[in-house]
Write a structure and sequence with these properties.
Length: about 90
């Protein structure tokens, strides 16, 4: 009952823009993660310098999205934790 009252008073279900922003961050982080793993797999096949640079770039992008001062960084961290991948968790640690 308290939860429902808090939702009502704070109008938590009435912020469509916030929900859309969260969805966009989640999709952006997912895209970065997918690209990170794609190029990481290409690095395993040999010394591909282009793939290594792409891995670094996507790693930096993912870290930047999870910085405490980044917009909706908690959504980005949640997206990473949802993947449940230890290698990915080390990227942002």
């Amino acid at each position: 009952m308290r939860v429902q009252e808090t939702i009502k008073r704070l109008k938590l279900n009435e912020h469509n823009d916030l929900a859309e922003a969260r969805r966009k961050i989640w999709l952006d982080v997912s895209k970065e993660i997918d690209e990170y793993f794609k190029y990481k797999a290409r690095c395993r096949n040999g010394g591909n310098p282009v793939a290594k640079e792409k891995v670094r770039t996507h790693c930096v992008n993912i870290r930047n999205m999870t910085l405490p001062n980044a917009e909706l960084s908690s959504v980005a961290r949640c997206c990473i934790m949802f993947r449940n991948d230890q290698q990915l968790l080390r990227v942002v640690a």
